[in-house]
């Protein structure tokens, strides 16, 4: 009989930041295990549930018993399984003993390459009750839990103590034990708003029964209910909520029956930079700050409570009482930092170690200043301002506010410099030099900010690659992948006419001048960054072969990559593209196989009409291709290249390249090299060949 399965593990409060992940992983693992053991159907659907005190799921169309099936075990190849007289070899005899079959019971099958012996055995289906509890237990062991705990005098372990287990198939309890708990059909509702056990008659009644017990079982439904209440409360106040998807997920994992209330604080705290107040409310108290239409913080916030009551005054007052000390701390840090001065902290950077092989923060600030100055000069920006921004960019790391809230680094630097009368362009660059902080983040605005941001990221990349600490596997303790993506995005999306190889060399020279001992860094780092660029471009929707054609040239002018991609995509649509790509691949193979030098082709050594025609065509297109490439007209350059197809086809049909006569052979190789240079002037079009 097919019916729906309900599984619930009732616990103490689960970690809120990982609740959604735990729920999805638990449901996916159980569902996969049931499917692997043939208990589910093609149209079975798994629905996860998660609240602060439970992980649960329902799975539809689950069989009470597995179907009878034939298990097939593959043995030795027929050729090696019997001797010349048709008797089993030792290898086959061992297989038969392990499989529990005789020679007469063996079958033969082919995988298309060879014929094999197989042992087939009928196996009766087993009941769900024989497997479900073990499937659940094994799924719990596979959950992404960094630390587990024991409770009471039990030896069982889980992320939190477990107090209840439901295993239902339709209306029937599936007997079994998980983490020392016997399965049943009872659960509990809201800790304060409900009382007594909730008896679940069948899986379909699970969510409605909990709803009656003041628990919204579905994480998604609860999240949507909170979002709707937040929007309604903010709308009544004519305000909007500061965006915080991560916070919404976290509060969803903290409440079972959400209710949104409005709290407030004294307007005098608004003198503190609003980023500080927003961060302390969101991070420490899990409140939702409110902004006016212009994006300015209001002295009101929204509370997501786990209690829905007629008079929430005590809840609101309690939360307001708790948040005041946090806001007072933020104001104290802000006032103290301003009293102690900002620019005067520069000398203190020298006493803070950045890395034992890369010097102090003071050393790093000096390097950033030099590199930022060089970049600004290349961009024809004010080099003095760029250098000043980079020199001051790390000072706020020594402030009390950033010590309490590291997320505010750069932001507080801007506020403190402006407080001391610093230029807005320098202050903005200090804030923006960390950009982009994450995928999709805004880029630094203006050449001064871009120079500081590039200097910061390049110094880290070159420094850590140079001391032999690049990212390995999934480990990237210094955030070098993020830094590389930031450099690439700034160069490509701003765009900036800077050469990546020159920037790497500039950062390397600055480190060496400070006495830092570096390993060979240029090529490994450039390869690393082009690999990151490859991933960026593929994620952006560019076809793999077009991306490979452009990156095969190891471009260092990253700002020109989009134009090259567009040109190659346009070229790929031409009727000549495929044949020229194949020819380019063939030429590359010919040139790589010879150790001879490639001279300039000599017209006097041309014998065949086909090679003379190709020579004339290459002579004609070479200046046009060079001109278009120099003017960054890559599409036009490739259109000119496409015109050479008839001569290329004729050459390979009529001319032998590797002839015995050495002068003739070298001349023809030289002609192919000249053609090869034109074919690859924009990209390696051989990558477009099928």
Short description:
With 690 residues, the protein is an alpha+beta fold.
What distinguishing features does this structure have?
alpha+beta, 18 strands, 690 residues, 48% helix, 25 helices, four-stranded antiparallel sheet, five-stranded antiparallel sheet
Question: Could you please describe the fold and organization of this structure?
Answer:
It is a single chain. The chain is built from 25 helices and 18 strands. The strands form six sheets. A five-stranded antiparallel beta sheet has the order 2-3-1-7-8, covered by helices on one side. Strands 13-15-16-14 form a four-stranded antiparallel beta sheet, with helices on both faces. The longest helix has 28 residues, at 313-340.
Number of helices in the DSSP assignment: 25
Structural class: alpha+beta
Low-confidence stretches: none
Strand percent estimate? 5-15%
Could you tell me the mean pLDDT? Answer: 94
End-to-end Cα distance, whole Å, is 52 Å
Give the spatial strand order of the biggest sheet.
2-3-1-7-8
Could you estimate the helical fraction of the residues in percent? 40-55%
Overall strand count: 18
Q: How can the largest sheet be summarized? A: 5 strands, antiparallel
Radius of gyration in whole Å, from Cα? 35 Å
Shape: flat
